[in-house]
Amino acid sequence: MKLLDLPLAEKNMLSALDFAEKSNDLISIGCAYRGLGEILKSSDKAEDAAVYFEKAITAFQKAGDTYGVEEVKELMSK
């Protein structure tokens, strides 16, 4: 993302999400959704980013990760 190759970043994060879902690891799923939200927010796609941020919050809540939830809420408020 720092190189601003946002399409490549999104492609790689979708791949990470696929692996996380296959492993049924809620923390990894939340992290992947958070990452997708950050990428889309950087691409000026705030509405699409919000959908991924909400999915990240849901995954972190299911995992009992309150820190992850708060981190995503902070990203949404920026």
TrEMBL record:
Superkingdom of the source species: Bacteria
Protein name stated in the entry: Tetratricopeptide repeat protein
